[in-house]
Amino acid sequence: MKKKRKFSVSVLILILVLILFTVPFYIMLTGSLKNNSALELKPPDFNIFKNVSLRSYIEAFSTRPIWRWMSNSVTAAVSVGVINVFVAAMAGYIFARRRTPVLKALFAVVIATMILPQTMLLIPNYLVATKLNLRDSMIGLVLTSVNPAYGVFLCRQYMISLPNELFEAAELDGCSELAKFFRIAVPLSWPAFGSLFIFTFLGIWNDFLWQSIMMTSKDNMTLAMGIQSLLTSGSDIRKYSLQFAVSTFSMLPVFLLFFSCQKAFIKGITAGSIKG
User: Is there a cis peptide before residue 44, judged by omega within 30 degrees of 0?
Assistant: First the structure.
């Protein structure tokens, strides 16, 4: 009876959490399919089976450069993700395969940087970007957004779990350290790389503060900045359905990325937790 009660309580908690997280998504999706007058009712009309249309999506894509915003966001997120994975993979391999006191101290410094809040880096990054004339450019946004500290930790923990026998056999065959990295560590660590790429992609995709500081021209606006512009432009302040439509569209690439890489993502964040 105690087990059944615990199970029932667990199921109830899961249902409540599921409702808590899905209701905002339901409101956003339904609101994007309604006209503005239905959303201004008290209470608003969020019945997804009544009076739905794609008018908000048509208006958004015909009056706003959605695809331009999307292209800028994808370029920034993918570029930062690739750089983070490349740097974290090489650094994580060194920290995993070499346990010298110097490298242990360096790894401790890397972990310490994870404790610092990102807001502390806004002013230094801004000054560097300004001095190098990198503001309002995709290259500047990408370079100032790279932060592989967590990736180094993730890759190190994953690579520690790889069998030492593989590297010893490769060393007996005369493989160099670089060859062992590319022929053994990289092929076996794709789940960790995939998880890190997804984490980085989500972070850059949802970032607004730093992108709004770096990008000043309309041509370089990202999707997050574009959604914010709908909340501040005078004629669109009351167009809730238009704002819902662009917000809903911005979630599609994230869903596609996660569900297409779901197995690798779960394997990557769990496989390095236990050695052996």
Answer: no
Q: Distance between alpha carbon 169 and the CA centroid of its chain, in Å? A: 37
CB 78 within 8 A of CB 202: no
* Amino acid (1-letter code) at residue 177: E
Task: Report residue 65: phi and psi, to 5°.
Answer: -80, 65
With a cut of 80, say whether residue 266 has pLDDT above it.
Answer: no
Concatenated DSSP letters of 212-240: HHH--SGGG--HHHHHHHHHHSGGGTT-H
- Token pair listed for 262: 């779901």
Instruction: Extract the tokens encoding 69.
Output: 């915003």
Q: What is the DSSP letter of 132?
A: T
- pLDDT tens digit string along 23-72? 988 988 898 888 877 877 788 888 888 888 888 889 889 888 999 999 99
Residue 25 CA: distances (Å) to CA of 51, 224, 245: 19, 17, 12
Q: What angle do CA 242, 247, 253 make, to 5 degrees?
A: 135
